[in-house]
Amino acid sequence: MPTIDMPTNAERFQFHHLVTGWQAFGNSRFGWWPDFAIGGSENLWQQLLAQVTLQTGTVQVFGKRHSIPRLQAWYGPKPYRYSGETLPAQALPPLLDSLMQQCMERAQARFDSVLVNYYRDGRDHMGWHSDDEPELGANPVIASLSLGAARDFDLRQRQSKQRIRVSLTDGSLLVMAGRCQHEWQHALPKRLRISEPRLNLTFRNLAG
Ligand SMILES: O=C(O)CCC(=O)C(=O)O
User: Where is the signal peptide (predicted)?
Assistant: First the structure.
């Protein structure tokens, strides 16, 4: 697996880009397969929208509730709690279960749950965060499958501020593993020129 050295000052604020396959940044590992679901992605889009029940959600910020800027759905054996909201447990529909098996094989990890995010257009977004809820375990592996409009996905190393930008294109799979959720934060910034929707499935393991 290629290993990328820590950045010099000049490199620190430039974006790195991922190459196909696994790569390590210190103790964090990223897997990137831009063509993971190419060929079936249009079919998948239709079938997923038919099987998944998307909802608006809220988050609590400084004691105030706000609508989240995207739609979402949660499927897994346990409820998912984040930012003061609880999404109830529910069984994965067959298509999500089959995609989860394929992602487990590629990510070499076990998953039992999926958070579905639907971005209606480029105004919908997700702010800087890490998927580090204790229920996800010590070093969670997260597999992120994208369909529809390509969107930039930014990663920043908490200490060095080193940055990675990946264009999450239709049918691509990004895996975050190792110490990623401790050492890096990620975000999906607004892109006001994008008018098409995007679906993102992040597979996780809550069973421990
Ligand atoms: O839509 C994306 O690619 C980002 C999703 C994400 O960051 C998350 O579910 O934690």
Answer: none
